[in-house]
Write a structure and sequence with these properties.
Blueprint (H helix, E strand, L loop, with lengths): L10 H14 L6 H14 L2 E5 L2 H12 L5 E5 L4 H9 L3 E5 L10 H6 L5 E4 L11 H11 L2 E5 L7 E2 L2 E2 L6 E5 L12 E5 L2 H10 L7 H6 L20 H32 L6 E2 L12 E4 L6 H10 L24 H6 L3 E4 L7 H14 L8
Parallel strand pairs: 2-3, 2-4, 4-5, 5-8
Antiparallel strand pairs: 1-9, 6-7, 8-9, 10-11, 11-12
Helix pairs in contact: 1-9, 2-9, 3-4, 3-7, 9-12
The structure holds pyridoxal-5'-phosphate (PLP).
Length: 374
């Protein structure tokens, strides 16, 4: 079976985790989290706060910059984590449509949905593509909005000459099992805004003021103050140990993901009825490989056919504004019409070029170049 995605971990990560268990014996938040945070900070040249998931990173970042009842513009095509983080922070998600060429937020629709309650925009760097950032940055300047990027897909991607995370308001990364790098579970908030950084540092440790410094020295606070809400969202040394090794291996993951996506792009270009996303794989570290099927292809039948041939596929994502809990958040007709056409093909660093040839051959067996189902 060719998996859609998978954790790519090895003896190296296992060895580092066992060092934490056997040699150090402190599994909570301590020196490994400090080291991982420092490495990420050096990489992006920014302040970093590590937490236990990407969802927690979003929750804290949003809580840091909005008040209860504030509106946040968010694309409907995203993982439901993005929406749940907004409501967890007491804010209101305003669903925005996506651009059909990239499946990233449609700024014309975002503009139309701005009101005096709009405080922030939460763009998702879909599939890792950071190109839309240049127009998003102009948009947030123009409307004076806070900008929290859901960069869960985009670790290591570039926008022009800038690494994602190095320039812009606030970035949230995920290091869950299948992301560009993993900690097992984990996430990070990246920003230059010291108020945001300090809030997130304290809020990840139940709001306990200055507990981070103590924990990095192997101590903790016994008498302390709490001035705002907090959660138990800190990262553990076990997870950071995995992340430290993944960072060392990242360059090879990056090259592999780019090669595989380029090959998909090249091979699938011959099926003219399939729409490929406009993504520059020189700049992007692709987390997923998604495409749009022709309207006449019954996606679920194709997925079934591929599965019977040993190929697992996915759909990124079910439009959030169609979920019961978020059904009042705004109309997104483009997202709705694109959804039945969305298909994600397997992509992870353990695949080889033959796998991509095999997958594309199978797609071609099902759909010919004219879009006729065989
Ligand atoms: C993975 C992901 C998240 C959430 O990250 P977790 O670490 O799984 O909590 C949020 N948004 C998007 C787009 C994601 O892919």
């Amino acid at each position: 079976m060719i998996r859609l995605s998978k954790s790519v971990v090895s003896e190296l990560e296992a060895k580092r985790v066992s060092e934490v268990i056997i040699e150090d014996g402190y599994l909570g938040m301590g020196k490994d989290v400090n080291a991982f945070e420092q490495k990420l900070s050096d990489y992006m040249n920014r302040r970093v706060v590590c937490v236990n998931s990407g969802t927690a990173a979003l929750h804290l970042a949003i809580t840091a910059v909005v008040e209860r009842g504030d509106h946040i513009l968010v694309p409907s095509i995203t993982y439901v984590a993005t929406y749940q983080a907004i409501v967890a922070a007491g804010a209101i998600p305003i669903s925005v449509d996506v651009d059909a060429a990239t499946l990233s937020i449609d700024l014309a629709d975002a503009e139309a949905k701005i009101t005096d309650k709009t405080k922030a925009i939460l763009p998702v760097l879909y599939a890792g593509n950071a190109k839309p950032m240049s127009s998003i940055e102009l948009f947030v300047d123009r409307y004076q909005l806070r900008c929290i990027y859901d960069a869960a897909h985009a670790f290591g991607s570039m926008e022009g000459n800038n690494l994602v995370g190095s320039k812009g308001d606030i970035f949230c990364f995920s290091f869950d099992g299948i992301k560009n790098i993993t900690c097992g579970e984990g996430g990070a908030i990246v920003s230059s805004d010291l108020d945001v950084i300090t809030f997130c540092q304290n809020a990840r440790l139940l709001g306990i003021t200055n507990d981070t410094d103590k924990r990095y020295k192997g101590q903790r606070s016994w008498s302390f103050d709490v001035t705002h809400i907090g959660y138990r969202y800190h990262m553990s040394n076990l997870n950071a140990a995995i992340g430290l090794v993944q960072l060392e291996r990242f360059e090879s993951f990056k090259i592999k993901r780019q090669q595989l996506a380029n090959l998909y792009h090249q091979l699938l270009s011959s099926i003219s009825c399939i729409s490929l996303l406009e993504i520059d794989y020189e700049q992007t570290v692709p987390h997923i490989f998604s495409l749009l099927l022709p309207v006449n292809v019954e996606r679920e039948l194709l997925r079934q056919f591929l599965l019977e041939n040993g190929i697992e596929t996915g759909v990124h994502y079910f439009p959030n504004h169609l979920l019961s809990f978020f059904s009042e958040t705004g109309d997104c007709p483009v997202s709705e019409s694109l959804f039945p056409r969305m298909l994600s093909l397997p992509l992870h660093p353990e695949l080889v070029e033959e796998d991509i040839h095999f997958i594309v051959e199978n797609v071609k067996q099902y759909i010919n170049a004219e879009g006729e189902v065989a």
